[in-house]
Amino acid sequence: MIPYDKRDGKIWYNNELVDWNNVKLHVLSHGLHYASCVFEGLRVYDGEIFKLEEHTKRFFYSANRMGIKIPFSEDEINTATKQIVKIQNVQNGYIRPVAWRGSEMMAISAQQTKIHVAIATWEWGSYFDPNLKLKGIKLNISKWRRPAPNTIPWDTKASGLYMICTLSKHEAEKDGYTDALMLDHEGNVAEATGANVFFKDKNGNLHTPIPDSFLDGITRRTLIDIAKSKNIKVSERKISPNELSTFEGCFLTGTAAEVTPVSQIQDFKFKVCNTIIDLSENYQSLVRKKAAA
Fold it and tell me: Which residue, of 114, 203, 214, 279, has the fewest CB within 10 Å?
């Protein structure tokens, strides 16, 4: 795989189109040292961006929660995102907008730092190995937990929130798993390291944790809408790890993960059932249909 700093083309950087290899930030940038950085992740399907406006609104919400004032409007970011996708000729890929505090100050305080914004995009297929997705991926249960909501800006895509996700995923991969299930501060099921989680019971109903200490994903909400349109009951509630043995199916949702079946969480086994396959196919039809429109 080509390293991400060695690719070709342009990146939208502070309202300029900069050669990919020349996009730089200083080593003393506040965002690097103190995690004062927010980002988004979007998908491109058949050359069209899926739910651009929703992602941009969340980008600005995350920034506001972090005290970061993005020096562009939402419309300007939407236009820039479309522009860079067209310039890079991305047909089926990923988009990463990011905003961070610069290097004018180096301490906890950052009131005088400049806010930088960049948007990069590239061709990108499945987040997980496509063969694994057909069989269902395997998760362990991480020792790291989602912090209590009064300790962090939990409802943002802020870089500091992902430190324990990286630790959890590395530990899972070391032990032969694909990803990790994370619990919340109360010990209930929360999410995977970069995706929300759903369970299917024996009656065909879906259950998913209440997003009260982790991100309420845009794909998560889309899947809930798809399920309800098919008269599938969706229960958003607290889910104890002790309940895992009662569920027949499990899957993850996220912009990167899309709809990914889970076959195992530690010793608990799940079926890649027709309901999950159908939801995944309906999601793919939706994103392609939106692209065609």
Answer: 203
121 backbone φψ class: left, alpha, beta (φ>0; ψ -120 to 50)? beta
Residue range 118-142, pLDDT digits in tens: 999 999 988 888 888 789 999 999 9
Amino acid at 124: W
> pLDDT, tens digit, for every residue of 223-240?
999 999 999 999 999 999
> For residues 76 and 61, what is the distance between their CA atoms, to the nearest angstrom?
16
The structure tokens 């032990």 sit at: 175
Which one is catalytic: 157, 230, 238, 290?
157
pLDDT digit string (tens) for 150-161? Answer: 999 999 999 999
Q: How many CB atoms lie within 10 A of CB 267?
A: 7
DSSP percent split of the chain into helix, strand, coil, nearest 5: 35, 30, 40
204: buried, middle or exposed (CB in 10 Å: 19+, 13-18, 0-12)?
A: middle
Domains located in the chain, CATH noted? 10-123 (3.30.470.10), 130-292 (3.20.10.10)
